[in-house]
Design a protein that fits this description.
The complex is a heterodimer of chains A (about 200) and B (about 350).
Chain A: H1 20-29, H2 34-53, H3 55-71, H4 84-96, H5 99-115, H6 126-144, H7 147-157, H8 163-170, H9 174-192
Chain B: H1 3-15, H2 25-39, H3 52-63, H4 66-76, H5 85-99, E1 111-123, E2 130-142, E3 149-156, E4 169-173, E5 176-178, E6 200-202, H6 218-228, H7 235-249, H8 254-264, E7 271-277, E8 283-291, E9 294-300, E10 307-314, E11 326-338
Helix pairs in contact in B: 4-6, 5-8, 6-7, 6-8
The chains are: A mainly alpha (about 200), B alpha+beta (about 350).
C-alpha cells in the first residue's frame, strides 16, 4: 500500500513575503540574505541617485549605501518592517557628500533644457509643451535650494516616500519635514511662476 | 500641473538619459558584503544534538525565501562548480548502490526504527580541550507523524562502545495532530524534547513525519538542500551538512537516496578522502566538505558503496580544537520499519 505524506515546510510566509526586517535579521548569521534587500531596492535607489548625480556616481553611491547598511544591519530597528526609508536615508547622506556634483549637474540640465527648441511633433501636445518648458526653470530652482530642502522635496517627489518615511529616513521630526517641504515647494513654485499658471493648489 | 507633478515629470525626463546600474554592480556589492562577513567569525555548529526533529520547525519557515537566493549565492561565492572528479565517482557509485536497494514503503500505522551509535565532542568554553560523550541511540518515529514516538539513549564508554556507562533514558517524541495551534508553542525550540504524550496541534504535521517525501532528481534535490538548509556556515557547507542530517535522521527511499548522492556531486567544494574509519571501526572511503577548519566526512563501504557513517575531523584553525582530532562521529547500525514502538526486529 502506498503511503502519501505531506511534504515541504509547514505553513509560513510565501516566497517573497518575508519582511525586510526579517531578511536583515537573517543576514546577521547568513550574509547572503542581504541580497534580498539589494534585489528589492537597488533599482529604486539607483534611479533616485541617478536623477540627482548621474549614472556613474550613482553606481558608487548605491554600492556605498548597501555596504554602509550591511555594516549597520545589527542596529536596524526590527520594529520597522520596511527598510525603504532606512536605505533612502543612508543614500541621502551619501548624496550630500556629492553636493557640488549635484549642483553642477542641475545647472547643466537647466541650461540644456532652456536651449533645447520645443519643435518636435510630440511637443505640439499642449501639456507636453508646458512640461518641457518647466524643466529648465525646475532644474535651476532645485540647484538653488538648500541641501536640506532638496533632500526632503526629492525624497517625496522622486523617492516616493511618505512624510513619515521621510522623517524616518532623515532622522528628523515630522514637523521639520513639513516646514522644509513647504519652503522648498514655495521656491519651486516661484521659479515655475511664469511658465506654469496652474500651480495654485496646495499640499 | 502642480509643482510636485512637474518635478515627477522632470525626474522621468532625466530617466530617459540614464542607463541604470552598471551590470556588475550587484556582484560587486554582494561580494564586498561577503568579504565583510568573512572577517566576522562563523561558529561551529553543534552536531548530533538530541531532539533534533523538534528543533527543525522554526527554521523551516525562514528557509522559504532562501530558495530564491540559491543560484545567485553559488555564483557569489565564486566557488568551483561542483565536487572533484574522484568525489563524484564515489558519489555516483553510492547513488547506483542506493538505487538498487529494495523500495520499502511503510504503512501509515508503522514506525521507522533508527539504531545508531555516536560520539560527540563537548567543549568547555574556549579551551581547545574537549570531552567525548558516546551513546547508543534507538528511535521510533511514526510514519505519518501523528503518533507518539520514542527516543531511547544509553551512554557508552568512549573506548569500548559495547560497554554501557549509565542507564537508558527515554524521551517521548510527541505525535502531531493537524489543527489550529492554540496558545504558546507547546514544544521547545531550543532543541530539548518535551516529554508529553499529548499530541502537538500544528497546522501541518509535515515536520513530524518519519520520513519526508524528497525530490528524486539531483537538481531538485540540490535545490531542496539549499532551500531547507540551516546554520551560519557558507551555503555549500550547510547544504552538505543538511544532506548528512538527512542520511542520519531520515528514512530515504532508494530513488531519493540516489538523488541525494548525485546532488552532493553538484555542491562546490566536495572532495574525496582516501580512507576513513567509522566509529565502529569499519574501514571506508569518504567524501568531505571542509568548512571552518573541519572536514566533514561521509563514509562509504569501499566494496558495496553503502553509506556507513559520518565523522568530523579537525584539519585547520577555526574549529577550536587541535588539528587531527575527531570531534563527532556516527555509525548507522540499523534502519528498519516496525509495527510497534520498542520493537527492534
Amino acid at each position: 500500500m502506498a503511503v502519501t505524506l505531506n511534504t515541504g515546510p509547514a505553513a509560513g510566509p510565501e516566497d517573497g513575503e518575508l519582511a525586510d526586517a526579517a531578511a536583515i535579521r537573517e543576514s546577521l548569521e547568513q550574509p547572503e540574505w542581504f541580497a534580498v534587500l539589494y534585489d528589492r531596492y537597488a533599482a529604486a535607489l539607483h534611479r533616485y541617485a541617478g536623477r540627482r548625480v548621474g549614472d556613474d556616481v550613482a553606481d558608487d553611491l548605491v554600492a556605498a549605501t548597501f555596504l554602509a547598511a550591511f555594516r549597520a544591519r545589527e542596529r536596524y530597528d526590527q520594529a520597522r518592517a520596511s527598510a525603504r526609508p532606512w536605505l533612502f536615508g543612508i543614500l541621502t547622506k551619501e548624496i550630500s557628500r556629492r553636493h557640488r556634483t549635484e549642483q553642477a549637474r542641475l545647472r547643466a540640465l537647466a541650461r540644456a533644457w532652456s536651449e533645447r527648441p520645443a519643435d518636435g511633433l510630440a511637443d505640439r501636445v499642449a501639456a507636453d509643451v508646458s512640461a518641457r518648458a518647466a524643466r529648465g526653470p525646475l532644474a535651476a530652482a532645485l540647484a538653488r535650494l538648500s541641501a536640506d530642502e532638496r533632500g526632503v522635496l526629492l525624497l517625496i517627489a522622486w523617492g516616493d516616500l511618505s512624510y513619515d518615511e521621510t522623517a524616518q529616513a532623515l532622522g528628523i521630526p515630522l514637523g521639520t519635514v513639513r516646514s522644509r517641504l513647504s519652503r522648498a515647494r514655495a521656491k519651486v513654485r516661484q521659479a515655475l511662476g511664469d511658465s506654469n499658471p496652474m500651480n495654485e493648489e496646495q499640499a | 500641473m502642480n509643482d510636485l507633478t512637474s518635478l515627477r515629470e522632470l525626474g522621468q525626463a532625466i530617466d530617459d538619459g540614464l542607463r541604470g546600474p552598471a551590470p556588475d554592480l550587484r556582484q560587486r556589492v554582494l561580494a564586498e558584503c561577503g568579504g565583510l562577513a568573512d572577517r566576522a567569525r562563523p561558529g561551529r555548529r553543534p552536531r548530533f544534538a538530541p531532539g533534533w526533529r523538534l528543533a527543525v520547525t522554526g527554521g523551516l519557515a525562514v528557509a522559504l525565501a532562501a530558495a530564491l537566493l540559491a543560484v545567485s549565492t553559488l555564483r557569489l561565492l565564486g566557488a568551483p562548480p561542483g565536487a572533484t572528479a574522484q568525489a563524484a565517482t564515489i558519489l555516483e557509485r553510492a547513488a547506483q548502490a542506493a538505487a538498487r536497494q529494495p523500495d520499502l514503503i511503510p504503512r501509515p500505522s508503522q514506525y521507522v526504527l533508527f539504531k545508531s551509535v555516536e560520539t560527540a565532542a563537548e567543549f568547555n568554553g574556549s579551551s581547545p580541550d574537549f570531552r567525548l560523550h558516546s551513546e547508543l541511540d534507538l528511535s521510533w518515529q511514526s510514519v505519518t507523524g501523528r503518533r507518539a514516538g520514542l527516543l531511547r539513549a544509553q551512554p557508552r564508554s568512549n573506548s569500548n562502545l559495547s560497554q554501557p556507562t549509565g542507564p537508558w533514558s527515554s524521551t517521548v517524541l510527541p505525535g502531531c495532530r493537524p489543527g489550529r495551534p492554540r496558545g504558546s508553542r507547546a514544544w521547545s525550540t531550543a532543541g530539548t524534547p518535551v516529554s508529553t504524550r499529548k499530541p502537538i496541534v500544528s497546522r501541518s504535521c509535515a515536520w513530524n513525519v518519519a520520513y519526508p517525501v524528497l525530490p528524486t532528481t539531483p537538481g531538485a534535490m540540490l535545490r531542496y538542500l539549499f532551500r531547507t538548509r540551516q546554520g551560519q556556515n557558507p551555503p555549500p557547507a550547510e547544504s552538505y551538512i543538511h544532506a548528512g542530517d538527512l542520511l542520519r535522521q531520515d528514512y530515504l527511499r532508494p530513488a531519493e537516496r540516489a538523488a541525494l548522492f548525485r546532488a552532493l556531486k553538484l555542491i562546490p567544494g566536495v572532495s574525496e578522502v582516501g580512507h576513513a574509519v567509522t566509529l565502529i571501526g569499519q574501514r571506508g572511503i569518504a567524501v568531505q566538505q571542509t568548512y571552518h577548519g573541519l572536514s566533514d566526512q561521509l563514509i562509504f563501504s569501499p566494496r558495496t558503496y553503502a553509506f556507513m557513517g559520518e565523522r568530523q575531523v579537525v584539519v585547520g584553525q577555526g574549529a577550536g580544537a587541535r588539528v587531527g582530532s575527531v570531534l563527532d562521529s556516527y555509525a548507522v547500525l540499523r534502519i528498519a520499519v516496525v509495527d510497534r514502538v520498542g520493537q527492534q526486529r
